[in-house]
Design goal:
Length: 397
């Protein structure tokens, strides 16, 4: 009970209570307490067997330390300010906490679904009471919907793939209905890349899990008709039309498209010297002049480094830290898992594919979800190995 209570507390701290306005919070206290507990667990399990992503995470932290020095040398930002700017990134240490606590797969999957449900309810309530804000997030009308970001959105997509995975294997419609509900919430965000990558990977999951008999073809036809039907619903139709219109406008802009301008600026004009390409410019943090400078690029010109995803992150935190993130992400994409855990491979594939035009892979609240995904992969791999050993022993006797 103590382990699970501590697990829930750190989990909620990591997403800062979903940013609910009427819940009083002490961000520094919550963060430092979480970091301390996760740090102790890191020291206790660092040499344990079965941590498939340990080296990648360690490389990530080496990159963070190098980046702190780069920010001080190149931008005059104190190492402390830079290290604190990475505050949300440190929740990747939750991976080691989970290994120490040995939380079960079933419990974690239930929590993933529960947190996705809470996220969805908060999203719907916020849209309904707009312009009154119950969530600390920017809200604006665009693409036929009200767009907002709530910390903890990583649980939404992970739960979507989890339940879709269960549906394809069990054909229980409760899984399909719930996963579609999560997909609609994702769609309500109005983000083209997130929506279409999720759809693309859903098709990949279908191809990987079905046997292409008459029954499976009927399921495919049903899902296609269901999607067409959903697209005719007025609210969803407006969102899809808004996405199409936005895409058409991008093609019309050509080389004046803002992300092309951002890419040119942050790679050709922003770097102070060549060391930026090896150590990163430094993650802006605190109230430093450097932080104000980077923020001014967004206010004055619409140049936000996070809009160019991993490329912007590379310029800010450097190739070493980014290599750590990509190492554990790509490894998680391709590590062999049983069919009922395919959703874990596809979730990390999702993060990778959307990361070139969005900040999804390093968004606030996402690292704790990544830590859960990585831990689940370790648990599944270990269980498969133990089962194989047991089968071999039985065969011998």
């Amino acid at each position: 009970m103590l382990k699970k209570s501590l697990f829930i507390i750190i989990l909620i701290f990591s997403i800062h209570f979903w940013g609910i306005n009427f819940i009083p919070q002490k961000f520094n206290t919550e963060n430092f307490l979480s970091w301390f507990i996760m740090g102790v667990c890191f020291l206790l399990v660092i040499k344990a067997k079965g941590l498939n992503f340990r080296s990648a995470i360690l490389l990530f932290f080496v990159g963070i330390i190098l980046n702190a020095f780069s920010a001080y040398i190149n931008q005059g930002q104190s190492p402390i300010a830079t290290l604190l700017a990475f505050s949300t990134y440190y929740f990747i240490l939750f991976y080691f906490f989970l290994h120490k606590m040995e939380i079960s797969i079933k419990y974690l999957e239930n929590i993933i679904i529960l947190f996705a449900v809470i996220y969805s309810l908060l999203y719907i309530i916020q849209v309904l009471v707009d312009p009154y804000q119950i969530i600390n997030s920017s809200l604006y009308a665009d693409r036929g919907t009200i767009r907002l970001r709530i910390e903890g959105n990583g649980f939404l997509v992970l739960a979507y793939f989890l339940l879709l995975n269960r549906f394809f294997l069990s054909r229980k419609f409760i899984y399909l209905i719930t996963s579609l509900g999560f997909f609609v919430i994702l769609l309500m965000g109005g983000f083209r890349t997130l929506t279409f990558v999720a759809l693309f990977l859903s098709v990949i999951m279908f191809i990987r899990l079905v046997s292409f008999n008459i029954r499976d073809y009927s399921v495919f036809v049903f899902l296609a008709l269901l999607f067409v039907g959903l697209s005719q619903v007025e609210g969803i139709s407006n969102i899809l039309k808004g996405m199409v219109t936005s895409t058409e406008e991008i093609f019309e802009q050509g080389d004046k498209y803002v992300r092309i301008l951002q890419l040119d600026f942050f790679f050709n004009k922003f770097p102070k010297n060549g060391s930026v390409f090896f150590l990163g410019s430094g993650l802006p943090g605190g109230y430093s002049q450097y932080y104000a400078l980077v923020e001014s690029f967004g206010w004055n010109y619409g140049y936000y480094w996070s809009d160019i995803g991993l490329l912007g992150l590379y310029i800010m935190i450097g190739p070493v830290a980014v290599a750590g993130i990509l190492w554990y992400t790509i490894k998680a994409m391709f590590i062999k898992l049983p069919k009922d855990k395919l959703y874990l491979n596809l979730y990390f594939a999702y993060l990778f594919l959307v990361s070139f035009t969005t900040m999804e892979i390093f968004r606030e609240g996402i690292f704790v979800v990544q830590a859960i995904g990585l831990y689940l992969i370790d648990k599944v791999v270990k269980e498969n190995y133990n089962n194989q050993i047991s089968e071999d022993e039985v065969a011998v006797y």
